[in-house]
Predict the structure.
Amino acid sequence: MLEYIIKRILSIIPILIVVSLMVFFLIHLTPGDPAAVILGPAATITALENLRAEMGLDMPFHEQLMTWFSNVIRGDLGNSLFMKKTVLEAFMDHLGPTLSLAIMGQMIAILISIPLGIIAANNRGSNIDRAVSIFSTLGISIPNFLLALFLVLIFSVALSLFPVAGYRPLSAGLWPHIRYLTLPAVTLGIIQAALLTRVTRSSMLEVLNNNYIKTAYSKGLSEWAVIIKHAFRNAFIPILTAIGQSFAQLVVGAIVVETVFNIPGIGQLLINAISRRDFQVIQGAILLIATTFIIINLVIDLLYGLLDPRVRLNRK
Amino acid sequence: MVLEHEHLLEVRALHTTFYTEKGRVKAVEDVSFYVDRGEMVGLVGESGCGKSVTCESIMQLHNRRITEIKGEIFFESQDLLKLKKQQMRNIRGRSISMIFQDPMSSLNPVYTIGDQIVEAIKTHRKIEKNEAMRQAVELLSMTEISSPEEVAKKYPHQLSGGMRQRVLIAIALACQPRLLIADEPTTALDVTIQSQILDLLVQFKKTLDMGIILITHDLGVVAEVCSRVIVMYAGEIVEEGTVESIFTKPLHPYTRGLLLAMPQIQGDRNCKLKVIKGVVPSLFNLPRGCRFAPRCDYSTQICAEKHPELTALDSGQMVRCWHYQKLLKEARINDSICDASARG
Ligand SMILES: Nc1ncnc2c1ncn2[C@@H]1O[C@H](COP(=O)(O)OP(=O)(O)O)[C@@H](O)[C@H]1O
Ligand code: SF4
Ligand SMILES: [Mg+2]
């Protein structure tokens, strides 16, 4: 197991290197001069040159690459061109709301999708199964901003249960924090749930076809013992992979939902940075989001080993 | 209800029907048979003839929503089909156990062997985990697994097919059932392991005085270990009798075909391997008369038109064929069937 863990952890290093290279090229291979794009057509020559020097654009290409690389390794992602902060500080300032939103959204998604998927699979072809399938089709096809607006109309405007928009940090108290995040998290959660319900249903169906399910029933176990202890325990392995992979979708969803609900998260940071052409922030934020994504998948890979003895004991 | 029959298991007029998206499938029709204590009964027939469905109906393992089981299944004088869910659960694994065909996929990959046997024990008995584990190891050594303590700590993927089948036998025997249903327990295994597993079943049949239904499509296996044979074709029983009578004078052309298709280990030169022509008919499109008619060398007009009933002979042998008397005479006159019973 230790060997497996070490191997997994080491395996993400080349991925991180490739990702940071890609982020670097993303900025430097975009057509046109970043300095000119930032300052606009009215910029003076001196202003342009100053900015180029500040961004290191006047150096030869390979030196720029080396500088970027050594900075990244030291955790220095540069300074924001507009805010008086380092990119890392800016990112950390906006991380809290997004993290809360993503966790709450994912939790809602899991709480909805896993029971629905299990029930649908166990009653395959029944009306319950059909209803669940309609839910997941709707959930997958509805645009997230539209769902957000519906929820706001019903629960904020009509029923006044939740605020229309805004954000309260955890430091303002747990209850206000949750109250403000509920509708955005539900929006995100329902869309995530639609996807995960499908995955849960199909991997449960696959597992239920196995002979060991028959063995379990013929031991005299109750239906729920078989479903949870034998079927779900196996089906959970692919579900976990899907949860990991859906994090990318979750982040994209979070960015849109943050905008609709005016939440000061990473989404807002990115959108502001893009509209102001704050290249350093765009670069840094993308790198950090990608890194988070890679780490989440690493954690999931490790859980995989924990859940599946075939992975744990065979991959030497 | 007081019933006079003393059979361990008696199935009467079993009908199992599936309601699938493609339509109604009558997988088992009017099947009746019995099994006594300490007796091993062979259930044979080509693949798709309804052997597994018959046995899984006894255990009621099918999805209730799409399955209709009719008839009576008396086990120790109570009709299993009249039991409540909970009562049936108490029977499964305690009084009746089942072993499935494919040992590779019949064990749960994420639990240790020991835990899977312990689960079988603890489902029916309130005992300490440690004590259950001790019994699990004992069961493993009973199935002649070497170093059972170590095997108990292993996961299924670390064992060979033969070992896994032994583990499944250990699970099935955990509560000393009175009836064991073994659904092609050796099909997936190689020949030496096959006979070891069969020996185990024979041995447990004696020591536990257990009734065993052995499903197989290998008549050689039946000749070795069973006392009676039931032959199924397209969801029905077509012939039933003692191993001796079935092997020396098969009265149904299908049984005869199965016997002729048996590979002859003793190498009788006059007896060529002869596969039955054609395939088992689709359950959606069964012949109107005898279900075997399209493949039968003895078929006549009546066979195509009228469905034959299962007829009991004085000898106790049962056969579902219009022309069994022709076969009876033939069997007496020339012994064209290879002497397969000699291997029994
Ligand atoms: N759950 C099911 N739904 C529909 N048809 C089934 C089901 N299980 C078995 N059958 C059909 O019943 C017939 C008998 O199958 P089975 O009992 O498995 O044959 P075998 O004699 O090989 O064990 C087959 O034609 C099979 O397709
Ligand atoms: S009834 Fe006719 S077709 Fe059917 S097995 Fe007998 S001889 Fe063959
Ligand atoms: Mg079968």
